[in-house]
Amino acid sequence: MRHLLSTQDLSKDDAILLLDTAAQMAATQSREIKKLPTLRGRTVVNLFFEDSTRTRISFETAAKRLSADVINFSAKGSSVSKGESLKDTALTLHAMGADAVVVRHWASGAPHQLAHAGWLDAAVLNAGDGTHQHPTQALLDAFTIRRHLVGLRGGAGGAGHPDGTGADLAGLRVAIVGDVLHSRVARSNVHLLHTLGAEVTLVSPPTLLPVGVETWPCRTSYDLDATLAGWQPDAVMMLRVQRERMSGGAGAFFPSPLEYTRRYGLDGRRLALLPGHAIVMHPGPMNRGLEISAEAADSARSVIVEQVANGVAVRMAALYLLLAGERDDRADAPPAPAATEGTAL
Amino acid sequence: MTTSSTTYVLRGARPLGAEPVDVVLADGVVAALGADVEVPGGAVEVDAAGHVLLPGLVDLHTHLREPGREDAETVASGTRAAAAGGYTAVHAMANTSPVADTAGVVEQVWNLGRQAGWVDVHPVGAVTVGLAGERLAELGAMADSAARVRVFSDDGRCVHDPVLMRRALEYVKAFDGVVAQHAQEPRLTEGAQMNEGVVSAEIGLTGWPAVAEEAIIARDVLLAEHVGSRLHVCHVSTAGSVEIIRWAKARGIAVTAEVTPHHLVLTDELARGYDPVFKVNPPLRTAADVEAVRAGLADGTIDVVATDHAPHTREDKDCEWGAAAMGMTGLETALSVVQLAMVDTGLMTWADVARVMSTAPAAIGRVADTQGRPVAVGEPANLVLVDPRATRVVDGAAQATAAANTPFQGRELPGRVVATFLRGRATVLDGAPVEPAGAVAAPGVAR
């Protein structure tokens, strides 16, 4: 793996390796000393063209726990305004010797361009691009689902390991609810969950499903109640609904926040329709009272806070596999994490 | 009218792909044509064995960028590219800065074209002041100017207000003008980045739905019928548009339509690499749309191939897809792409190519008195000689256009322009542009 740009690029083996590595990373994070020497001397640049404090902090934490040097580069407003172009930014980072670039960008495809335009030879991690992809979010979601649910529907089972190491998500059902049209989280999850063997239903008002969704490896529904009661998902992932989607007069995607909440919001009543083991997920930040009620967000089934913690482990795994994995080609390659038995790692 | 003092004899050229003949060009006209012609002494011999001789190509849709964006293209560089591509006339679109919405600006462009001397430059006038879509520009003044404007277009933007479009269609009848519509319903395409469909859904770019083009064309053909005007539809890109135009023509409505070379061969799958060189308006569509526009061109539903040559600076393309300018160059690849898509596939003959790239556009643009003429004795020697057996690899940096945004970079294309003649003077010879010796009079003065 040279870059992590899209979950569509991941094979099932790639995905399971990422999740298993994340599990090992997570195990180290319950220790008193959380820092590992793995990426000492490597430079990771967080290149953010769009505000996202949560994602940036998660990546920064992950890189620092692996002892990498971290540079935060906030380039908000560049390129479209009179600022520095993406190309010049990339050339600058190249000149500074960045080993990995974590990029968040408003433009779909910007990480792909950074990886392939020949401006930069660092590993590129997509931390969310436009309405395209957010692969580490999907990986942390899959990681969270695997921890809680693997084995419940049969499938490949837990491989004897309590946290599901080695397992895929075969047979599990995941409902993704909300603004699919504008969601990189939904796109990333649909492909990754499908690759891992899970079934996905997208639940959305018709205005917020993209034209062309019929080719995606999932089913779609306009009816949340019917999906929850009839399909009995093991996990329900609520997507953030941005308030600007309701403005714009004739161009608004739905009539009012109240109508959205009535038809697509997750509340206590809908929670009760789910099987007993089902979990509630949200990539954050939540609009409490819009797509998710406080009751649902704070319920015992909610794993939303855990998703955040798992995000660090998954990003550590991604950085490790992209940077240390690349070093495996050299003679002085350190042993893979699985072989370190939890000491040096 | 100034003409060439050099006499040329094209040996073994195949007019419109027919049997080989020798063709003598003297005093700006085709002086002789046949198997056994008398060649004046001192004539320059051009080996045309196996080459196809066509009337000089006429582009109804060229962006020359001057005045205003001389960093992307000038009238001189753009018309040089046109000559290199086999053109002898281009219609220069109005979306310059300032907009070509007054007699002054269209005359400026017309004069720049005359000074450059590569091809006849026919300025297109804006339909509305500043392309703003709010009120009619002084169309009559542009028609009466030295530039003699006959084609009016807000290209780049749609004349979307139905009343304004109706008025424009009616008003230009007074001087036999035509409104060339950029069919794009603006509200359905806010923020649009590419064709809306399977690919846009997957790669997360805002969609430009086919219906936004088709709805405007449907409205406009009905308006044209109602007021008895002629309508020209720019860059038709969807299967549905072809069907609507086919219906309108069957109904007797005076509609003509163009397709670009890129819409004849490229699809939205190319957006997957996020290279903004493939960002264009209207966007590249699906393979089914490509098939439909080819069929429409072959059966005459679509009348002409027009390049929509849209040069852009590197900085406007070396950036994020979402920030990049829309458009691609086309003048120097159009004939090859048409050969690839239509001739080599058996869908059209070289005579059809002459029709869709020269005769029909000259008729629509009302320049058929000098351009798009038959290859016959006594006709103006506006000609292009093409070697259909040659192949070449496209290199944007090596093209005559000042811009490098060709979507065919690195692709091997069939056919090569060997020579272009403008009123008997070679603007291209042996495949290379021949610098004009000083200003050449363009048509419009004596007519």
Keywords:
heterodimer, A: 345 residues, alpha/beta, Rossmann fold, 2 domains, 5-stranded parallel β-sheet, 9 strands, globular, disordered C terminus, B: 447 residues, 9-stranded mixed β-sheet
Encode the helix/strand succession of chain A as letters: HEHEHEHEHEHEEHEHHEHH
Distance between the termini of chain A: 21 Å
Mind telling me the CATH superfamily name of the largest domain in chain A? Aspartate/ornithine carbamoyltransferase
Structurally, how many domains make up the residues of chain A? 2
Overview of this structure, please?
The complex is a heterodimer of chains A (345) and B (447). Chain A is α/β, with parallel strands linked by helices and 345 residues long. Chain A folds into two domains: 7-133 and 311-327, Aspartate/ornithine carbamoyltransferase (Rossmann fold, 3-Layer(aba) Sandwich); 135-306, 3-Layer(aba) Sandwich (Rossmann fold). Helices cover 36% and strands 13% of the residues of chain A. Chain A is built from eleven helices and nine strands. Chain A has helices at 12-28, 53-65, 86-96, 110-116, 135-149, 184-195, 224-231, 257-264, 268-271, 294-297, 304-327; strands spanning 43-48, 69-74, 100-105, 123-129, 173-177, 199-203, 219-221, 235-238, 279-281. Chain A has a five-stranded parallel beta sheet, sandwiched between helices. The longest helix of chain A is centred in the C-terminal third of the chain and has 24 residues, at 304-327. The radius of gyration of chain A is 20 Å and the shape is globular. In chain B, strands 1, 2, 3, 4, 5, 16, 17, 18 and 19 form a nine-stranded mixed beta sheet that branches. Chain B is globular and about 65 Å long. The termini of chain B are close together. Chain B has 447 residues and is an alpha/beta fold. The longest helix of chain B is centred in the middle third of the chain and has 18 residues, at 210-227. Chain B is built from eleven helices and 19 strands. Helices cover 26% and strands 21% of the residues of chain B. Chain B has helices at 75-84, 103-116, 139-144, 162-171, 198-203, 210-227, 239-250, 261-265, 287-298, 334-343, 350-364; strands at residues 8-15, 21-26, 29-34, 44-47, 52-55, 57-62, 87-92, 120-123, 151-152, 178-181, 194-195, 207-208, 231-233, 255-259, 304-305, 383-393, 412-422, 425-429, 432-433. In chain B, helix 1 crosses helix 2 (103-116). Classes of the chains: A alpha/beta (345), B alpha/beta (447). Chains A and B meet through helix 4 of A and helix 5 of B.
